[in-house]
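FIELD: query
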Amino acid sequence: MKHFIKTVIKRTIFIVALSVFIMTLSAQEDSGQAYEEAKKEITETFGTFLSIFDAFPKYALPGAWQAFKELTGPQGSIDPKNRELIQLAVAAQIPCDYCLYFHTLSAKAFGATDEELKEAVAYGAQTRHWSMIIQGAQIDLEEYKKEFQEAMKYMEEKSKTQ
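FIELD: result
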């Protein structure tokens, strides 16, 4: 009886392992097809398969490309020029030379002026500056929120009287 149970267990383990192996091969095939489709779309979009996409893991590229398309697509509520200016401001503060180059050219392609580029970078720098001051001083977040809410109320009331 023990021998029979051991045999059944061994066969069950073999069948499960074989099933997992077959499912893995099938998933790899599906992943390979999805990768090729994403690569084709990227090449059609940019005229080449940019190295930033080649540097991404193949199995994850289809999902990353889908997210890229959704965030840069027409359904967003931020217009393309302002989207690029925001990303330029962030890129300047990271800092990332690659992102600075890409988002500067992209913002210009969407109509941003040199003055708007400078302003976006200055806004990013100002945010980083004050963030460093607040963080370095270790100002209590809850106290800061209360102070700022009071300041907003004051400025709102003041604007009504002007």
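FIELD: remark
The helical segments are 2-46, 51-54, 61-72, 80-93, 97-109, 114-137, 141-161.
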